[in-house]
């Protein structure tokens, strides 16, 4: 299950949030997603929230078509809390992957993983519904070994490790090393449980190479905020190419 070449999925939430500042159709989310895919991104990630503060529900079918029309193995990943409204959205959209997160609707961003033991039954039911619909399921997880075997037992295909604490160590090398070792232990446990590994949150051009060196079996990295910020200087295509190189350790 080891992946020698981690794949990049561009999270376009920040682009949608910029668009939503005005009642105007730009920046054009579909066009920038196409540019990202043409530049080498493996997929597009979105996280539609109930208040539609960035991704709007109307964006979902549009971006699904962008990914499908690109073809070439590109994937559409939708993240969200498994409310009935969210489940209806993804069952209608049929993305390649659904990433379930334990967010409160009022949260600014995802900031913790599932308590797999406490949510075992409810997650098992949701995972079964999504897999019956032909979608791969990833569960948002803290970077710790505990509970990962439960994620595998209830049918998840992958876990996405929350890398926010690692990203927060940008000015503290000692703390960064501790977080890298923590992620390496969690990655080993996930692989032993039969789970593929995704990563996401506060990943940058600078912190990706050491992370991949410690966590060599990453299947996919979902990156939005830093990539969008770098795209202001490099352009979307240039940022995608730079992050693709960083994922290869360069």
Overall description:
The structure is a single chain. An eight-stranded parallel β-barrel has the order 1-2-3-4-5-6-7-8, surrounded by five helices. It has a single domain, classed as Alpha-Beta Barrel (TIM Barrel). The two termini are 23 Å apart. It is an alpha/beta fold. The longest helix has 23 residues.
How are the secondary structure elements laid out?
Elements: E1 7-11, H1 13-19, H2 29-38, E2 43-46, H3 59-70, E3 75-80, H4 84-93, E4 97-100, H5 120-132, E5 136-141, H6 148-153, E6 158-162, H7 164-167, H8 173-192, E7 196-200, H9 208-214, E8 218-223, H10 225-247
Parallel strand pairs: 1-2, 1-8, 2-3, 3-4, 4-5, 5-6, 6-7, 7-8
Helix pairs in contact: 2-3
Briefly characterize the structure:
With 250 residues, the chain is an alpha/beta fold.
Order of helices and strands: EHHEHEHEHEHEHHEHEH
Note the gap between the termini: 23 Å
Instruction: Please give the domain count.
Output: 1
Q: Write the CATH homologous superfamily.
A: Aldolase class I
What is the approximate shape?
globular
Q: From the structure provided, what is the oligomeric state, counting identical versus distinct chains? A: single chain
Strand order of the largest sheet: 1-2-3-4-5-6-7-8
Helix content: 40-55%
Figure out the total of helices: 10
Question: Do you know the CATH architecture?
Answer: Alpha-Beta Barrel
What are the low-pLDDT stretches, counting only 5+ consecutive residues below 50?
Answer: none
Major β-sheet profile: 8 strands, parallel, barrel
Q: What name is given to the CATH topology?
A: TIM Barrel
Beta-strand proportion: 15-25%
């Amino acid at each position: 299950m080891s992946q020698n070449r981690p794949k990049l999925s561009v999270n376009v939430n920040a682009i949608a949030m910029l668009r939503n500042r005005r009642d105007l159709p730009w920046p054009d989310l579909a066009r920038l997603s196409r540019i990202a895919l043409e530049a080498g991104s493996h997929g597009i990630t979105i996280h539609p929230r109930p208040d539609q503060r960035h991704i709007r529900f109307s964006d979902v079918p549009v971006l699904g078509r962008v990914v499908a029309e690109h073809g070439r193995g590109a994937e559409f990943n939708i993240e969200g809390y498994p409310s009935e409204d969210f489940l209806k959205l993804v069952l209608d959209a049929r993305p390649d992957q659904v990433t379930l997160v334990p967010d409160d609707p009022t949260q600014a961003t995802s900031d913790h993983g599932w308590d797999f033991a406490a949510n075992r039954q409810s997650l098992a039911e949701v995972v079964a519904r999504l897999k019956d619909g032909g979608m791969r399921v990833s569960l948002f997880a803290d970077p710790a070994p505990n509970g990962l075997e439960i994620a595998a037992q209830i049918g998840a295909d992958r876990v996405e490790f929350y890398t926010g604490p690692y990203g927060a160590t940008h000015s503290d090398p000692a703390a960064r090393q501790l977080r890298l070792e923590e992620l390496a232990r969690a990655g080993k446990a996930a692989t032993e449980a039969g789970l593929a590994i995704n990563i996401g949150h506060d990943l940058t051009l600078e912190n990706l190479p050491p992370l991949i060196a410690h966590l060599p079996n990453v299947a996919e990295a979902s990156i939005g905020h830093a990539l969008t910020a770098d795209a202001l200087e490099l352009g979307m295509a240039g940022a995608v190419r730079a992050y693709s190189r960083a994922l290869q350790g360069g």
